[in-house]
Amino acid sequence: MALVKDAIAFDGVGQTFLTDTGPLTALSGVDLRLDQHEFVAVLGPSGCGKSTLLRLTAGLMTPTAGRVSVFGKPVDGPRDDVGIVFQQATLLPWASVADNVVFPARHMRGRVDAQDRAQAQAIIETVGLKGFEQRLPGELSGGMQQRVGIARALFLNPDILLMDEPFSALDALTRDAMGFELLRLWQASPKTVLFITHSIPEAVLLADRVVVMSKRPGRVIADLRVPLGRPRDENALRTPEMQDYMAHLRGLLIHKEVA
Ligand SMILES: Nc1ncnc2c1ncn2[C@@H]1O[C@H](COP(=O)(O)OP(=O)(O)OP(=O)(O)O)[C@@H](O)[C@H]1O
């Protein structure tokens, strides 16, 4: 089947919040497109509206200007073809790993059937948690909890995966390992990924394209293809070409942060 162009499209998107101290414009004039199965990382200063971009894509809010479309249709509410992974896994602490993973089925259909259980088991195995199905989140390490969060986001086999700094609370080694695990999952079952991070190496190692946003009100100031083939490993970042590429990204970020 041919891949869809512009699986996610932001056209002149703006978002202004009404706050106690007056209107706050988080995003202004954001234009961005992702083709189906593209992996796009977003870098930008704190508060520039990166999480807001994800919430708009997930249909958790509607933009105050412009339009967000998924597969050609304006987003007008939460969608079941979109999975979200947050910085903290936000698991139900009293529910087992297996129950956390099937939670979207319970939430959407009000019940969980044998097929859901089988599907959850397969995903739990895919993310490397076989044997931990009946454990509670509190019994797991941070990396394992984040794996449960990823399994839950993948449970409905969404076309689109939105990830909001999913590995930033993890130690450096676990973080790197989780990044490669994510790539493995993405290559085995391709998805359109919008991935927010503060880490330039993480963005470069994972993504097809890196988008840099300005400070608030956030807009896209650079949209650069990553000049690396796949598969990738950390050594790929050590070449002079990649060091220059990352220095360029850093320059864009630092310059725009103080501008
Ligand atoms: N519901 C809301 N009501 C009021 N202001 C909001 C709301 N959501 C976000 N904001 C404000 O909008 C701006 C952008 O927030 P957002 O969380 O999207 O930024 P971010 O780029 O993800 O930040 P960070 O990198 O620090 O996580 C911030 O100034 C934030 O305080």
UniProtKB/TrEMBL annotation:
InterPro entries found in the cross-reference section: AAA+_ATPase, ABC_transporter-like_ATP-bd, ABC_transporter-like_CS, ABC_transporter_ATP-bind, P-loop_NTPase
Protein name as annotated: ABC transporter
Pfam families given in the database record: ABC_tran
Record flagged with keyword Nucleotide-binding: yes
Native species: Pseudoponticoccus marisrubri
Sample GO molecular function, one term: ATP hydrolysis activity
Entry coiled-coil feature ranges: none
Keyword Nucleotide-binding belongs to the record: yes
Ranges of residues in domain ABC transporter: 8-240
Family designation: Belongs to the ABC transporter superfamily.
Keywords per UniProt: ATP-binding, Nucleotide-binding, Transport
